[in-house]
Amino acid sequence: MQSSKVLIDFPFPEERIFRYQAMQDILHHLANNPFEEFTQQELASITGADVSSISRSVDLLEKLGVLTVSDQRPARITIDMDHLQRPDSVFMIPQYEFRKPVQVYLDELETRIQKSEDLDELVGVVLFGSVARGTADRRSDIDLLVILDGDLTYGRRICTSLARDIEEESFDGHRYEFEVLVETIDTAVSHGSELREIFDDGLVLARSDQLQELRQTIYASSGGGE
């Protein structure tokens, strides 16, 4: 099983950099919650360390480049995305600023599908376009192909509604727009030639056995192997 890794800059700013137990506890918590921000007081409550130990630990971790500390008061502390490696599919997205809005979309989509009586399951989600290629700017849409098992009309409605909801949210002071292409297994097969290009160049963010079978069918029907 793959695990998360935090990359530390070398040379170290001083000797015995991990002399505080709180440093390891802070890194462990932030690496497991990469899209969240915490104050020193919150980290003290979570780790059981006193605030002075948290303060000294945060200072050292910031010198190592693994934390981002905001200028606001109280300061908000988060893991530095450039120093974090995780096996989660969303971390394949080259530009880290797009990862959080995409993750929020995926999490909420799973929740809405589970609550729905008209959709059986999420077959797969593929990110494509400039965000998948790593060439996007702040004005770029987040392009997603969502494949569902269930009623297509209802599926399009909840996927589009979710996109509009997230577009109203702010992520580090920025808003993001989504373009969501929604298909069922049957309609995806009928649009195989167009979807093959997405499979060729996109990043699979949610997968299933059904998605793999669908992908093989699309490649076979469009005249070539994978």
UniProtKB/TrEMBL annotation:
| GO molecular function terms listed in the Swiss-Prot or TrEMBL record | DNA-binding transcription factor activity; nucleotidyltransferase activity
Q: Give every Polymerase nucleotidyl transferase domain span.
A: 120-170
Domain called HTH marR-type: residue spans: 25-76
Q: Which domain of life is it from?
A: Archaea
Q: Which CDD domains does its entry note?
A: NT_KNTase_like
Q: InterPro entries, per this entry? A: HTH_MarR-typ, NT_sf, Polymerase_NTP_transf_dom, Type_VII_TA_antitoxin, WH-like_DNA-bd_sf, WH_DNA-bd_sf
By what name is this protein known? MarR family transcriptional regulator
Organism field: Halapricum salinum
